[in-house]
Amino acid sequence: QVQLVESGGGLVQAGGSLRLSCVASGRIASIITMGWYRQAPGKERELVARHTDGDITNYGHSVKDRFAISRDTAKNTVYLQMNSLRPEDTAVYLCYAVVASNYGGAYNNYWGQGTQVTVSS
Q1: Which H or E run contains 51?
Q2: Is 62 within 8 Å of 76 (Cβ atoms)?
Q3: Residue 47 pairs with which residues in a beta bridge?
Q4: HSE-up of 47 (CA within 13 Å, CB side)?
Q5: Coil, strand or helix: which one is 13?
Q6: pLDDT (tens digit, 9 = 90+) per residue, 9-25?
Q7: With 0-12 CB in 10 A as exposed, 13-18 as middle and 19+ as buried, what is 23?
Q8: How far apart are CA 9 and CA 91, in angstroms?
């Protein structure tokens, strides 16, 4: 019903930067939140950053001063600018969105397939 497609992952050296994008498509009446989680092998999935209507942003503690989330609501798109990358940032980065497919209907969580970010040092 709703699809999230990420792009922009890849290989980067420590200290470098990457910019991730995620586009939501399908049956969308409104999106209240878009954001990013990440999951490394053997670790729990953790919040990276999220943006909610009203220009509210939240960041995970380890990325707060290095990453920046932005959102283009008209294009159903969210971005993640990642700077000063560290090897411990290596993970699959997953886009998520909280979406209502009908006006007045319930909001549901949707997830992208993920994009790999690998930071070498």
Answers
A1: strand 46-52
A2: no
A3: 37
A4: 14
A5: strand
A6: 999 999 999 999 999 99
A7: middle
A8: 10
Residue 39 C-beta-side C-alpha neighbours within 13 Å: 12
CA atoms in the 13 A half-sphere facing the CB of 8: 17
- Using CB atoms within 10 Å of the CB of residue 27, give its burial: 0 to 12 exposed, 13 to 18 middle, 19+ buried: exposed
Q: Which residues, 6 or more positions from 107, have their beta carbon under 8 angstroms from its beta carbon?
A: 32, 98, 99, 100
Tell me, what amino acid is at 79?
A: Y
pLDDT tens track for 42-86? 999 999 999 999 999 999 999 999 999 999 999 999 999 999 999
How many Å apart are CA 76 and CA 114, to the nearest integer? 17
Length of the chain: 121
Structure tokens at 110: 């949707």
How far, in Å, CA of 33 to CA of 73, rounded?
A: 10
